[in-house]
Amino acid sequence: MFITLEGGEGVGKTTQQALLAERLQREGYACVSTREPGGTALGEALRELLLHGDPLTPLAELFLYAADRAEHVQKCILPALAAGQVVVCDRFTDSTLAYQGYGRGLDLQQVRQLNHLATGGLQPHLTLWLDLPPEVGLARTGLADRLEQERLEFHRRVHQGFQALAAAEPQRIVRIDAGGSPLEVAARIWSVVQPRLLAAVPRP
To answer: Is the domain 2-200 a CATH 3.40.50.1220 member?
Structure first.
């Protein structure tokens, strides 16, 4: 089963990914935690360029994310799924649509086509959209990377993008209220993941 965590800045994806992976392992499931950008040696190098390097044009940024994803899918995600593992990924194609499509204003159809090329058509079985108002999420961050330092208007467009994506695919993308303590959010996530997991993956 392929599960992705999505959302704007400061919503707690990294924390929730760790808590979900820990819960899965306690329940007896083999689990791989990974992230985008990152997840491979190439991906980690691209992550540094994308988040901490010099400013990029929107199109160059899009292509770097696609290169990261193509390598990540082939070398990490697909092998783990083929081995029967549950893959939990911090960001995937929906982030590219929200950030580079809605946020940067790139053509959504072109972004979708590039996503499809990079993934070979791979889609998550379940996407958990951790939702907070952009102002709240940004207040939680240290504004340490290039995306976090973007203007509030950019982050509002990204948030609108996630709203639109969730409305278009309600069976795959489930909104999770990211307010409250990490354990409260983790409980909301598990209440969504557990029935999907039991339906899709034989219990260990």
So the answer is: no
